[in-house]
Amino acid sequence: MTMNKFSMKAKSCALAAAMAACFAASSTVTAEPIYINTGTDLNGDGNSLTAVFQNLGLFPDANSIYNELGAGKDGILKNGEILSFADAGSVLLSALKPLNPVTGDVEGFNSPGNGWTLQVDYQVSGFAQVVVGADIDTATVAQGATFGANEGLLPQFVNGTIKVYLVNPSNSLGAGANGQQLLQLNLQGGSATLADVTLFGALDYSWYGGGKPLVENFFNFADNGTSFYQNATAVPPVVVTWNNDFNVNPNLIPYNHSNNPNWSTNDFSSQPFAGSCGRDQLCRATNLNMTVRFDAPEPATLALLGLGLLGVGVSRRNRKSTQ
What we know:
By secondary structure, this protein is an alpha+beta fold. Helices cover 19% and strands 34% of the residues. The protein has 5 helices and 14 strands. The longest helix has 24 residues, at 299-322.
């Protein structure tokens, strides 16, 4: 027998509404309180836990390489022009913030001797729209020149990952001489103005082969004491999300170094792009003030999706009983 078209549409709408409500509720930008469990008592206080905090504070130098699209690569930024871009960087974590209390235990973070820190490597790519009042020739732009007010490059992010590594030179935590990857954050989307950017996505443990307590127990939610890994591998899994907001300051104009008399060989050799900025590419290095936060869907949100799926299941059973 064939299903009545109206009942099929009603069932599809019910499922769509339930899922839309779930994802709308979970997309709210919030920050769950978290703590770190190093697995080793580094300060003799009887435990291996840091104080509770909410954000990872970073100040990376973003190395951005832009490519003009199409055949007419003239190095001139024109209003409305679309560029492709790739950003990459690596930085050591600067702060666990805000600690609660402010003088709370950091369990050896950024401490000498047996201390540890976190290294954050990131890469993102996408497209950027040029917003300028008048054309800018990147072959003549002065070193350190910035865009004017209400000018800049408006990005749209397509792909990206952020990887977090434990760095522990003394190996007091058993991370090994080369450190230990703890997290991978996959980019799922973002929003941007000319000066401010927000990225968001979800944690991904597909890279992890198992058997490392540091990976499985390091990051934890303070409200219920569960680790990021426990949530991500639960049945059904709880998607741990992240968001990262930062500002672009100063808002530098990218330069075409190969044709720019203001960028001598000596000047360029001291820049982070030495050897990586191609002849037809536009490049800039910008210091970013990043804040990374983590969250997980509330049980009520998951229940909402569950009820929607349950309703669809009941609809299917009722349909079978009438056939």
